[in-house]
Fold this sequence. Notes:
Layout: H1 26-40, E1 50-54, H2 55-63, E2 90-95, E3 118-125, H3 130-138, E4 142-146
Parallel strand pairs: 1-2, 2-3, 3-4
Amino acid sequence: MNRxxxxxxxxxxxxxxxxxKFMDIxxxxxxxxxxxxxxxxxxxxxxxxxxxxGRSTTNDNFTHYKKPELDEQAPIVPEGDFVAEPTGxxxxxxxxxxxxxxxxxxxxxxxxxxxxxxxxxxxxTEKVSxxxxxxxxxxxxxxxxxxxxx
Length: 150
């Protein structure tokens, strides 16, 4: 059986925080650049197919706290997963349990990694409104609903 190879990489402070002023000091810069080269650089070591972040990390790095433009009158979105035709070869998986991320498009830019190869998979829960699911479908996101888990 092929099993996924999963690694967890985070830059953390001594008190366990994953974001804060410590990230801006010169001593922190080298580790971020080293990880980028390992996972995304021209001669990458990790041949990964994607990575996962939560809502706060996604907001900090990609959606920049933009509010989604929702149509509360949108037609009812059918239950279950929505699988668009994948176009990328790397995926950014975002855990957004309440449907708050204000995406502009279903791809993103990360360093020198081009937007065309990074497609977003949004993982939701039953708490997410119909208007938010319609918002994602309009932008042709891959979505998955975690039913009663979170």
